[in-house]
Write a structure and sequence with these properties.
Shape: flat
CATH class of one domain: Alpha Beta
Largest sheet: 4 strands, mixed
Low-confidence stretches: 137-141
Helix content: 25-40%
Mean pLDDT: 93
Oligomer: single chain
Order of helices and strands: EHEEHEHEHHEEHEHEHHEEHHH
Number of strands: 11
Structural class: alpha+beta
CATH topology of one domain: GMP Synthetase, Chain A, domain 3
Radius of gyration: 22 Å
Strand content: 15-25%
Number of helices: 12
Strand order of the largest sheet: 1-6-7-8
CATH architecture of one domain: 2-Layer Sandwich
Length: 403
């Protein structure tokens, strides 16, 4: 039986994403000075106020206020029309030292025995929904990149990236930083995407533009980013359904680090362990192990061992090895490799300890501010999005099959 599924995404100027970007920009600044920094920083933004708080242990020293203001400007809050003036916003900073009890659980004389920074469960997912989106990747010069994401969240991010580009490139100079998109996909009886049912674009804008102009520009510039074979005369496009969106960003709503975890991952299609990413260094498995789970799942699908794959890992604080690893694979119209066989191959190919994850994905680098908006998955240039373990996985599966 067919069904509808909806996912949303938000632009970098959404209040929650502004908070994420500030937190990750601070993390990057610490990692630039000291790759061993332990950082857990959260940001709260509201009308004319930004509060940065958290715990840090680092050999580096950074100017938190300057980093916060620079992030605001980079996102677009140097524009007075956005009503959150980066130079005038009050910035409060309350940063303390990382708990010694957390430190004793994580640090080891032998770095390879580093324990997890907290208990928790993390999920990774990949699927072939986006195989039909090769055209948009080719246009972006990423012909060899495999997205392997659920289609609703991928297309929502495609639209937010397009909306942001219209603003930053000056094509639609009335656009302001805050915005949201939402895509509803109709799936067929076989569980595969059949058509796009509803597309919603809500964008903050200057007061001197008519809604008809916004709708026309969205249709002209953003609609072509969607896969044409899934559009038909029943596809609905809703632009600023409330009728206007002048007041946005922290002027219109509060923002908080870590409040868009479903937008950050799979749009609700796959489970989420509950831990947020931004502002956390990779000793926090909330972040690093979720990246690793995606890396594992994506390589399994890219190796053609499954058409969809979900990976769950779980950790105990201070313990290096995960307490559980589960692989659940699906074949669409065919048999996937059995889950137990995939799990054995994963154990051989991937090191799932915190130290192993950090080493395999090279995570002690200032790469995180760029992940804060537009999703953490399905984008080229991120180490957990590479598919370099496919041959090793196929070899392990083949070896266990022969055995």
């Amino acid at each position: 039986m067919g069904f509808l599924f909806t996912s949303e995404a938000v632009t970098c100027g959404h209040p929650d994403k502004l908070a994420d970007t500030i937190s990750d920009s601070i993390l990057d600044a610490y990692l630039t000075q000291d790759a061993g920094s332990r950082v857990a920083v959260e940001t709260f933004v509201t009308d004319n106020l930004c509060i940065v708080g958290g715990e840090v242990r680092s050999g580096g020293t950074v100017d938190h206020e300057a980093i916060a203001r620079a992030a605001m400007k980079r996102i677009g809050y140097g524009d007075p029309r956005a009503q959150y003036p980066a130079d005038d916003v009050k910035v409060m900073v309350t940063i303390g030292q990382q708990s010694a009890e957390i430190a004793q659980g994580v640090d080891r004389g032998d770095p390879a025995k580093q324990g997890a920074g907290d208990q928790g469960l993390m999920f990774g997912y990949a699927c072939r929904d986006t195989d039909l989106c090769r055209d948009d990747l080719a246009q972006a010069g990423e012909d060899d990149f495999q997205v392997l994401m659920p289609l609703p969240i991928h297309l929502s991010h495609v639209l937010t990236r397009g909306l942001t580009a219209l603003r930053e490139d000056g094509i639609c100079d009335y656009l302001l930083p805050d915005g949201k998109t939402q895509v509803t996909v109709e799936y067929g009886d076989d569980g595969r995407p059949r058509r796009l049912d509803t597309v919603v674009v809500s964008t903050q804008h200057a007061m001197d533009v008519e809604q008809a102009q916004i709708a026309a520009d969205v249709r002209e510039h953003l609609f072509p980013l969607l896969p044409a074979q899934l559009l038909d005369d029943r596809t609905r496009l809703l632009v600023n359904p409330t009728g206007s969106f002048h007041i946005g960003g922290p002027k219109g709503d509060t923002g908080l680090t870590g409040r868009k975890i479903i937008v950050d991952t799979y749009g609700g299609w796959a489970p989420h362990g509950g831990g947020a990413f931004s502002g956390k260094d990779p000793s926090k498995v909330d972040r690093s192990a979720t990246y690793m789970a995606r890396y594992v799942a994506k390589n399994i699908v890219a190796a053609d061992l499954a058409d969809a794959c979900e990976v769950q890992v779980a950790y105990a604080i201070g313990v290096a090895e995960p307490v559980s690893v589960r692989v659940r694979a699906e074949g669409w119209g065919r048999d996937a490799v059995p889950n137990e066989q995939l799990a054995r191959a994963v154990a051989k190919v991937f090191d799932l300890t915190p130290y192993g994850i950090i080493q395999q994905l090279d995570l002690l680098r200032p790469i995180y501010a760029d992940t804060a908006a537009m999703g953490h998955f399905g984008r080229p240039g991120l180490p957990w999005e590479t598919t370099d373990k496919t041959e090793a996985l196929k070899a392990e599966v083949g070896a266990t099959s022969e055995a």
